[in-house]
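In the previous lecture we treated proteins in isolation. Real proteins rarely work alone, and many bind small molecules. This record shows how such a complex is specified: first the sequence, then the SMILES for NAP.
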Amino acid sequence: MKVLVAGGTGFIGSTLCAELAERDHEVTALSRNPDDDRVPDGVETAMGDVSAFDSIAETVAAHDAVVNLVALSPLYQPPDDLDHETVHLRGTENLVRAAEDGGVDRFLQMSALGADPDGPTAYIRAKGRAERVVRDSSLDWTIVRPSVVFGDGGEFVGFTKTLTTPYLTGLPGGGTTRFQPIWVGDLAPMLADAAVDDAHVGEIYELGGPEVYTLADVTELVYESEGRSVTVLPIPMVLAKVGLTAIDPIPFVPFGTDQARSLEFDNTVADNDVAAFGVDVDELLTLRSYLETESGQ
Ligand SMILES: NC(=O)c1ccc[n+]([C@@H]2O[C@H](COP(=O)([O-])OP(=O)(O)OC[C@H]3O[C@@H](n4cnc5c(N)ncnc54)[C@H](OP(=O)(O)O)[C@@H]3O)[C@@H](O)[C@H]2O)c1
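The predicted 3D structure, ligand included, written as C-alpha cells:
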C-alpha cells in the first residue's frame, strides 16, 4: 500500500514510517521541512504544510492511505504565529478534503485522550473538532487517542525536567495528575495496523501503557534514573494557575494557562483498547523500565 504519513518526520512519525516500511508498504513522510536524515531508509519525503491545501493536495492524492500525525505540542505555549486551531483543525480539514478529492481509501487520525470540541484547553478542543471532521467524512477512517508517548526523541521526560528541579521541587496540586505513558516502540505497530487493516475502520481507540503514574511519580522516576533524589512540594492549583496566567504574555516562558489547565485532568484511558491489536497490556514497556535502561542501570 502507498501510505502518506503527514508529520512522518516527527517523534512518533519516524518510528511509524520505519514500521510501515518494514512491512513493505511504500511510505512517504510529509512535513514543512522534511529532512531525509530524520526518516528511515526506504522512506520518501515530501514537502507540504497541512494548513495550506494546495501544498498537500497532489501528494495526498498519490496515496492509498493517509496518517495524520501533524503536531503542535500541547506541553508548551505555541509561538505567536501558530495555534492549535490552524494546525490540528484546519490541517485535518485540508488533509480530509484532499483525501476525499483524491480517492484515498484509508485515513488514520492521531487524536488525544479527552479530545472534546468543548474541552478545557485549545489543544483538546482542536483535537475534538478535528475528530468530528474525520468522523463526518466519506473516508474509511480510524481514530486513535493515546496517553502520553515516551521514547528516544519524545518530549515527555524532557518536559518533566523543565517543569521541575532535582532534590526539591514544587508541583501544581502536588503533582497528582495521572498519566498512562505508552512507549513509541509499542504504539507504532498498533498505528501501522490501524492505518491499513480494514478491521479497524470506524473505530475510536484509547491507548495507554501498562502503568499509571502521577506527575510526582514521573518526576521521582526521572531523577532517580539519574541517581538524584527529589522531594515534591505541593503548590496549590489555584496559585499555580495564577502564576502561569501571569507569565502567559511573556514569549520566552513556554508555559501558559492551558498548560496549567491540562494538569487538572488525568491523562488515563477508561478502557485500554490495546487488545484490539492483539496486544497484552502487561507485555508493554513501562516508563520505569525505559528510564532504568536509558541510564544504564
Ligand atoms: N507525543 C505524545 O506524547 C503524544 C500523545 C498523544 C497524541 N500525540 C499526537 O501524536 C501526533 C504526533 O506527535 P509527535 O509527538 O510525534 O509530534 P512531533 O514530534 O512534534 O512531530 C510533528 C510532526 O508534524 C510536522 N508538522 C508540524 N506542523 C506541520 C504542518 N503545518 N504541516 C505539515 N507538517 C507539520 C513536523 O515536521 P515539520 O516541523 O518539518 O513540519 C513533524 O514531522 C500529534 O498529532 C500529537 O498531537 C502525541
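Summary for your notes: Residues 173 and 237 are 5 Å apart (CA to CA). DSSP finds ten helices and 13 strands in the chain.
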